[in-house]
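Sequence in, structure out.
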Amino acid sequence: MSPGPPEGAVSFEALYDEHADQVFVWAMRYAQGRRSWAEDITHDVFVKAWEHRAWLREEDVRGWLFRVTQNVAFTALRRESTLAGRLQSAVDSLLRPAMPSTPEELLARRQTMDSATSALERLPPQERVVMALKTMDDLSQREIAQLLSLSEGYVSKLLSRARARLTSWGWRVDDVAP
């Protein structure tokens, strides 16, 4: 008879059942609609979880899974050497409201999306991630701090820096108050 997991360790089945959907959603953020790519990332994240299952604890597993998802996705994107193109696709999908009725509206929307993509690409990686978690996932600073294993003060500082940069580049970012 083999010994069970150490006390406080997370059952792999429970871990997968509880977090697989969220990991997939996080992976889709980087996948720009490529479901199979996000499924591959999700698979790779849970392979890493299996490898580390003996020391994973319930109180820190969500943040750990987020960081692993982010790291695996960034590695895959670097391998593809198309991060800028993927970011453009992400911004396109986020900013795509109803279809424009005139060619002028289409052109204006495309120029706005190109400008937004450029602004987001210019943010340092930590500021970009924190801004995405705040604006796209509507997480509180406390939740962001827990997910990224940062202090709330540092998250506030990153959000303030990102907001200041975006504002200086002509973007309105009222909704990202610390």
